[in-house]
Fold each of these.
Amino acid sequence: MMYIKRVVRLVFVFLVVTFFTFWLLDQGKSDLLAAKAGLNATPENVAQIKTELGLDGSFVSRYLEWLGNALTFDFGDSIVTNGFSSWELIRESLPKTLELMVLAEIIAITIAVPLAIASARRPGSWIDKWSSSGAFGLLALPSFVLGIYLSFVFGVKLGWFPTIVDDLPGLNDDPFDNLRQMLLPSVTLGLNLVAVYLRLLRSDLIETLQEDYVMLAQARGLSERRIMWRHVLRPSSLNFTTAVGLNVAGLVGGAFIVEVLFGINGMGRLVIQRVVLQDFEVVAAVVALLTVAYVTLNFLVDILYSILDPRIRHGAR
Amino acid sequence: MIHRRSRRVAAVLISGALVAAACGGDDGDEPEAESTPTEVEAEPEATDADEPATSDEPETGGDDPPPSTAAPLEDADQITSEGEGSDDASLEPVPGGEITWGLTNDGTGFDTTGAVAPGSIRIISALNDSLAGLDIEGNWVPNLAQSIEPNDDYTVWTITTRPGVVFHDGEPVDGPAVAANLNAFKASPTAGFSFAPVTSITAVDDSTVEIVMSSPWAQFPQSLVSQAGWMVSPSTIGTNDTFIGTGPFMLESWTPGDGARIVKNPNYWRADEGLPYLDAVNFKFLPDQTVRRQAFDAGDLQGYLSPGDEDIVDFLEDDDVDVWIGTAGANEYLWLLNTTAPPFDDIRVRRAMAHAIDKQFIIDNFRSGLTTPANGPWNPSSKFYSENDYPQFDPAAAQALVDEYEAEVGPIEFELSIEPNPSVIEVAEVMMSFLADVGIEGSLKEIGQGQSAITALQDDYQAFSWFQFGAPDPDREYTFFHSSGGLLNWSNLVSADIDAGFDKGRVNVDEDIRREGYAQVLKALGDEVPMLWVDHLNGVEAVVTIPELHGIGVSLTLPDGSPALAMTDGAFFAWTGAWIEQ
């Protein structure tokens, strides 16, 4: 029942967001029609093209039609890049951004979790101080500055990695070349997340370590490692999990800068580019997909909560 | 006054700081030194109000023909000269290899009957050969066509196709194919304006096309040098997602927003000359200047267009980089003024604006001194260039005109339409600060990228930040100034002198008579000021390459054996002859 209510709420959010997106799209329709009609367009031409594009009828009926088509990934054709559908443009960009996000999260989690545990075990120790300072340093460093410096050092000066992602092979086709090209952008994006994850997890771990059941486990002689990994980490991960869930969708926006810096034809760059080009059909499609991704991820995070801490599930009953 | 000048200084300092930050720690060179406070603050005072600086004037001005090649230049002093010539001639071209080339603009497709975006044109330049080409003096000559012949009064032109030439899909480039392409161009709602005098295009037989005009058009083949002369396989006319042309390379893939890959055309009609040399070119769209520079420095790009003025200065001092400056056809930067709408329907306001703006300040501080002041649509290196009386920087004269207008009509306010390009907006804001100094208040109105042409054609503007013109032959600018140009007569000015001058240039073949006609046009443009000219961009529309890449910007021979004009329009360089050391 709890899940059904949440699904209903998510559908509502999706409808509200897509409705307003479609409304914004509609505001730009006169320009789009003019572009389609050409430079000598008469009112008759415009009316004809309006019919051809299925733009007749009420706003609500057109929205419902668009929504129905969107369910089959038919988001209409790009106005600027004739000959391509919105979905074709997205399909080209989506895998690169997904890979970038996953790699960035892996890098961030791989660095943040061990550092948070080490810091929480010995608060105030040298590793705690250094990791906190380093994390704040990374947090203060904008990704465009970090990206330029990483690219300059490891691309231009050392020549270890390419400075641009070009003709990216699939992970299955050539994993080595794929990862070689994606490493610098993923590190750029991932390092910014380390600070947030590290600080959240560290403080929750310290709090959990002060719980009675942890002291009991220590009194029973369980090893520190076992206590930390088996009994402390999971209940301390709620805020951390929330942050990871929120960041996955938020990374699309953050990915824009990294995608520009490394020449990646990803979703972030696509959406900004299409906003500038006033290619609203594509923008509406991207917003709809991001909304679905965002609400779905948050739904999954909610489910994960109850797995991480059964009290949440029981409390809901 | 002080406040406005401070704004200009601040703009220059911020610009310099951003560039310095972007290039920080790069290689120890200091291009940002151009923007030191001392130099910047001294500059406005040092600029002569009535005399544009002449030290940077091209050596090839006046009646001299443009040079035959765009050459790699050794230092900034040679930027507008012919250069030293290329070392390519001493090297034997080697076939094979592929390169990655940085694109500044993304392509929006390959529909040759529509408005083709600059990013697309860059790629098309390697996929296509035009019916006509340009020799080193900018005169048209048959290229893909075997011959282009007029009748006695230039009202009928006959194009004969070259035997044996095929499109990338194997279809013949014959009379019906050429006629189909030209008819589609003529019918285009966006491009067809320039074919206004054409009344019919007919394939007479398999190898001949007859074009009939409503009035004499002696320079008609000039229009076949560019878009109208691009031939695509008839089944793909009007198709946007592919380009099946006749050029040295074939389109293998195109990903909007990312780039394109082109591969050698084994059936190229000049294959018996060993052309083209390269196996493939990867075009990579990189909108950010710092990223292009970094990728080039890392060896991930072998060349790119439009490095930006600061980088050009930097590269010119670097022996490991070749810089190719276009010697013909570069754009002008200007503002269109809508002469049918207030306040620019009053010539006093237009002239006041021209007097108010210090072009040399912009050139010195935003172009690193690489460009030259403009007084019209043609570069001083054009054989059709002449001086005119375009108002020079004179704030006192501007103020007097403004005072006179304001006493009669009221305050002068206007909106400048502009695409969202930060570096262009920066220059526009500085120009506005000059105008504000004399009491003309402007504001910016950003429009969507790629919407300029449509917005201008709908006359939905007062002033418009604009890049255009500079074609090697002025006849190609006819529609944009002539009263018969309709919507394409950008500033809507109707001038008997301009019409008569352009008609004289169009109808006659005698160069002296044509020159007279275009001098008449330039004089009228200087007097009427329908456009606010800033600078000729041939100094900054440049290409940089690694030294191992040869043949870019070098004149290739035309089919008749004569050398072609290199780097025309700032985009068309000789991909056919490009080769890389293995």
Note: Chain B touches chain A through 47 residues (CB under 8 Å).
Amino acid sequence: MLNFSRWAVFAILLPLAIGALCAIPTFLPESTVAQLPRFMQTRVNLGLDLAGGSHLLLEASTQDVAKQRLTNMEEQVRTELRRGDPKIAIGDISSRDGKLSFMVRDPSQVDAAVERIRPLTQGAGLTGQRDFNVEVVNSSSIVITPTDAGIGNAVKSAMEVATEVIRKRIDEMGTREPTIQQQGSNRIVVQVPGLQDPKALKDLLGQTAKLEFKLVDTTANPAEVAQGRAPVGSEVLPYPGNPSGSPVIAVKRQVMVSGEDLTDATQGYDQNNQAIVNIRFNGSGGRKFGQVTSQNVNRPFAIILDGKVLSAPNINEPILGGSAQVSGNFTVESANQLAIALRSGKLPVALTVVEERTVGPGLGADSIRAGLIASIIAVVAVAVFMFVSYGRFGIYANIAVTINVLVILGVMGILGATLTLPGIAGFVLTIGTAVDANVLIYERIREERRRGRNIVASIEHGYKEASRTIFEANVTHAIAGGIMLALGSGPVKGFAIVLLIGIATSVFTAVTFTRLLVARWVRTHRPTEINI
Amino acid sequence: MKLLKLVPDNTNIGFVAMRKWAFALTALLTVLAVGATLHKGLNMGVDFVGGLMIEAKFPQTVETDRVRTTIARLNVGESSLQQFGDPKTVQIRLPLPEQGGAGASNAVVEKTRKAMEAEFPGVTFSRYDTVSGKVSGELVQTGVLAVMLAVIGIAIFSWFRYEWQFGISTFVAIMHDVLMTLGFFAVTQLEFDLNIVAAVLTIVGYSINDKMVIDDRIRENMRKYRKMDKKALIDLSVNETLPRTVMTSMTILLALGALLLFGGHVLRGFTAAMMLGVVVGTYSSIYVSSSLLISLGLTPAAAEKKAAKKSFVGDAERVGPRDDGAKP
């Protein structure tokens, strides 16, 4: 048992050496690490609570997605039946309780209508599941109900697009190493380290950035508009900056040009040195814009962002060059933000911040310093205590703990795990518990010596008997750690990762590695008495 | 060099004889802890109740009353203030605006920041968290679930690994540890947040570690001394493992003590919970779980059967001729 073959020694030392080596880059400055070969760049990432930064959890409303889809469906049905050939007249179209229903004027056309709608309800996937169910009720009404699978697919694709849009927006802000991840079915986690102004980020992500240009309905009666009523074909929209004082305005429903036709958006200034956003349309968007503005010279058009009117300037002359200005009481910052939002496209669904955690860089640095000091003091205190309690064996345990700390950092680096503040606590706790295995072994050796066993037999027994106990005790400890990792979020997870890695490495270093050290000493010195 | 021995050789404390008293004390403390938790309640952080938490760092010591009046003028809802760590840091908690989503909570933070900067030049907002009611509800759920699953999972493990008596005694002892920790937080009114759930889970992990070591020794001794009286046997096992229990508790308390004193204010509640847990866990290993085994009627026969099945190899080696061989 105290004999280790050359291979065994190699097998014990090699992983420890690799693990410890992988910890080195963590202590080097970033610039030095960048020059190392790729496989050596195994740094432990610092969590936001240590590096400073913002963690945002954004949530999309599934109901919104479902509602939007129904609105789209209504539009599609109208186009398909009213404008298709042969024309099918419909009426009483309404979407209520998440269903779309309408009446076919001529009952003999009901079957034909269903046939025409069918292709619209087909899912895009290969599963053959329908996105909508179509039913005929009372022989002349058709009810279209979205299926769960259809809503699920729609939410899924909306979230994919949203994640992409968010990525573009954050990249445009020029922050480094953001993490953007979908969580669950309708949430997105955004983590941006070292961010100075999380407010700007939240404002940016909170914008859907759906831009539309519509003509102002000048025929509408202002009194009725104020009460929220608009003429047929128009709608009343909020207009917070209305110079006339009324917070609402009536605009035509028909969209002249929308944000989808944009190719670029930049922040600029108008002749009065007011911040504006310059936008550029693609070919077809430019043509449409030119056409509508030519026909409506001297009438106002509304610039609408996310359902709110930003401004309603007059069309002084046809705008033909394919570019336009968006004005509306901007500051330089807010104009820049809108430009970024427009460039990165509109979010398919509105997102709300349901959780935010922001840590200032100063506090993060304080925490690291405090954690480091605490770790060093903990290591020294435990080391001294082990030495006065077990002498030479205590030193072996201390060497094992030191290597253990390095290996944990190395493993974290290899796994790309993140070190958080509770992670540091996990670290300190691991230092405390790592010696537990050695304590178990050494106490066992003491016992065996008291019972009169000789030195070698005591050591052998100590290691063998204690190993089983160590295993049992650590399996249960790992159960707790595993549950934390599986269920925990943020800080709990960071703690669990360190704990689990620590359990695995400390068992190995405490049991196997110290046995190697003890065995070498016993073989070379053949002690007649051990001081333990 | 004379080595330090915290527990003298051949210590023999009659733990089992004290168990009636210990049970009474444990029961009393548990009732007090549960009572305090129900009566005073826990000082839940924004993680669990939702809301807005701002940590403000002032250049010098401030009176919380002045901060309170500054915020009261803003009309952003009822604030609750707490000096946090040092007298220069104040934690401000505000309710989340009911409507308006991200923009609204932004506005509250901005409003508070501006007012505070005007009133206290040089103040910095070192941290702020906002958690919506929906998310906080989920965090409570997963937190409770995590602790329950951990306790049950560990109890099941020790039931399968040993006997059902061990499973139950372990379960009871861990529940005791968890309740004590809750009681501690109710009495001290330290903030109870997600980090504390991690601390509680760690306590569970540590406490079980301790119990496994003693349980393992009990089982081993049951095989070794088949005729021994159960009470004496448990006393023997607890005493034999006592040096280890004390040593390990000491090293962990040393490490946690360093963290408590030097680890920064953010981790203070977390560390305090774990230190308490180590003490409570050690107590419950000795007085609750081990003593409970007797009341549950642990029989050597049951242990024997299971042990024979599981560690046959170990037994064979134990009685082998290696005992006296001085093979290097």
Note: Confidence is low (pLDDT under 50) at residues 311-328 of chain B.
Amino acid sequence: MSLGSVPLKYKVTIDREQCMHCMRCIDNCSYGVYHKEDDRIIIDSRKCTACHHCISMCPRDAISLKERPVDYRSHPLWTAEAREDIINQARTGKIILAGMGNAKPYPVIFDRLVLDACQVTNPSIDPLREPMELRTYLGKKPSRLEIDKKDNGDIELKTKLTPNLKLETPIMIGHMSYGAISLNAQLSLAKAVEKTGTFMGTGEGGLHEAIYPYQKNMIVQVASGRFGVDINYLERGAAIEIKIGQGAKPGIGGHLPGEKVCQDVSCTRMIPLGSDAISPAPHHDIYSIEDLAQLVRSLKEATEWKKPVFVKIAAVHNAAAISAGIARSSADAVVIDGFRGGSGATPKVFRDNVGIPIEAAVASVDQKLKDQGIRNKISVIASGGIRNSADIAKSIALGADAVYIGTGALIAMGCRVCGQCYRGMCPWGIATQRPDLVERLDPEVESEHVANLIRSWTLELSELMGAAGINSIESLRSNRSRLRGYMLDEGTLDVLQVKPVGA
Amino acid sequence: MEKVEIDAKGMHYTPLNEMIREAVRNGAKEIILDNVIGQRFIADGLKADVTIRINGVAGGDLGMFMNGPTCIVNGNCDHAPGNTMDGGTIVIHGSAGDAAAHSMRGGKLFVKNNIGYRGGIHMKQYEEERKPVLVVGGSSHAFLGEYMAGGLILVLGIGQEDPAKDRGIGSGIHGGMIVIRGEVKDELLGVGARKAEFGEKELEMITPYVEEFCKYFDTEPSGLLDMNYTCIVPASTRPFAGKYTWE
């Protein structure tokens, strides 16, 4: 007996009265939902991923889409998704692959934190007429400054400062590799960070020649696969990031399927054409915090101690202790990637079930570093599920120096979070290497969209800071008195070190 | 300035590397490091046409990210010599620790005696001109050539009864070739690795590296240039292609 097929996920319909038969839906759908039979457009809803490209390109707004048009017998435990996953795995015997971030309805802690605002006794600041300082320096800060006073009255700084990364806004774009996303998508992000005075990560896919003009805004990544890593790559980056873990898949490595390793990706990663690009879970020269320190120092030694080195870990329950180790490893920043962080491809069971929320991880990391008296030795970067400027302000108030955004930047370029990135057919030209799809994305236009997003969130941050009576981002950092928890349990409030509303 | 001598006694690796870079900038073609005792990262990221003679025991990550130099170690070497090396040659007149030639993507590493675990792990290759080569005179330990994506690992087993007696050879290998002197038991092969015929073509391929090894260590190649080798290659360039299904 066959298991049969599961019901389709989405139902696409065309309003035939509205439709002008322009056939743009056929041209636009890379998944093959539409085809033409005689003069009629035929719809195969089963192929639909809800990417919305057809809807956004339809000149008559004739296309409608509904999620899950077929009901199952309702059951609180055996949801439709649970049943369909079992059918899928019973049929294939394989691991279910997924894209984007955690898709389970866990409560969002950010949404249960509220920011404070000044009223009478400590007046708020008007960002329209008062300067607001959002410039952020990432890297080690000295415990104290030693100054030498000369006889002629001049003063000289005796303390040797460690190289820091200078950001005009505490918002950066996280690592999305060339291979996982298209070159045009990377170019758009690169142009956007140059326009806004911030930085982006290359991901573990190396640095394509087309990105060289933006290398001063690039954080180059070294993952266990060491793709595209050579001394020139390290020297090009403004900073270097060692990727240990990723929020969407803590504890496992990365894997770019051979289908996406086209000629250009093969050249940039320096691997054979069409072969799988495998980044295993561990770095095979790191089995302890001492080994990690050795990799950090080897990267600094290779680049003559001129560049900050970051270490990225997934948010897991012992992230605080690990970060304290990282702070002692010569690293300049630790990136904590929360369990809502995105991914081009990850086993669904990891995406939806492994890791902890970024809010709790950042707060516990910040607290541990402060408790040990080493908070100045390292910067903290929060990433994974940052959706708006309020999330950024809350992240910083919980202890982050800056944030990485990922999915938000993709949405600014058109992404509709359909979660099919691993199939390489992204109709928006983002998570694909198919030339006809890549060329749909215009780096000039999309870089402006991404830059606008960063600008608008930066403006909102200024307003939020001003309302809280703060004129410098440094005064917001780890300033948990500006936060209150609403409908959060006592245990979570304790981890966050945040008081409940009304307290 | 053709030749520079540096006494590394008691010296931290950073000033040592600074002195090496300074010598290279001043045109040194040969640098001799005396009294090396465990300094890490020697020649880390160094881009130059220079020969560095290391008298003593080199510490971890010798020649990491290096591109161009020749490092000759008159002694043993700690872990991961040639780590993510891009180009150049490392010759070790002794043994090396774990993860020798880790992620090496070009250049050659010759070890006179033995290496530890995970030798040649993640070695990768981009087209024919960037082919990394690891040649081990003695034996290797477990997970030799794990996740190997390109290049050549050659284990000669000189003076060894069993040059590769540990398990996991070529686990996850999806490119390149591992050649081991003598027979290798099937149960020692990792997932994704398979034995292939060692024929005249393969012998021709390894001959220049055997000869180069013998030149460095003053050994006679004739006893090594025969068909007594086992060749291990990937079962597929896509080892995990069948592991996943769509959401």
Note: The domain at 95-240 of chain B is CATH 2.160.20.60 (Pectate Lyase C-like).
